[in-house]
Please model this.
Amino acid sequence: MQVFHFVGAAHGLENIRKRRIKIALISQLNDPFELLSVDLSKPDLRRAFHALKDTLAQNTGLLCFSSKWSNPVLWSHYADRHQGLCLGFDLLDDMAAKVSYKAKRLVAEAEALQSPGVLDEALMRRFLTTKYAHWRYESEVRSFVGIDEKDLETGHYFLPFSSSLKLTHIIVGCRSGVSRGDLSEALGGNGRDVCCFKARMAFRSFKIVRNRKSSFWT
Model:
């Protein structure tokens, strides 16, 4: 599955050099409703889900992608206001979980739970991939991974690029100063199969598109 990850220029170049992607921690995600998409009006269920979220946060992280790269809002929010990069990956389908967007909390699922805190895999996956409808613009795809060894230099967790997470594209934001030389240096000998290009604003729509005039990107 083709997915896209937005990042600031400095961190993006560093990740390309070190061939890795940052793992997001559940406790640090920008949506406080993560894993809490179910109706939690019952106190026992509420306590159970908050405890479950705390437990998961200790050993599970996620990679955050979008199925699209043309949305200007994603560039504004996650790529330093179009000054950063978008990294495209081939992600194994088995590792990809599309987010579902809902206007209301999951009521039927809450009522179906026989015992708070006891969830089957399918139900757990649904809770982990359900978000409020206003996040729909992200077209998010998630990949859940374990967190183990922290990078001592940055204090973050990373997952290395691999055949399961293959870098295929590097898209430079329309306001970015990242040059061809910057990408060549960061890629080193790993750029043979990576498509790199500069983005621009579309002329007839509110989209970000590929700038096909190579002279506009040095």
Remarks:
- The longest helix spans residues 43-59.
- The two ends are 31 Å apart (CA to CA).
- The first strand starts at residue 2 and ends at 7.
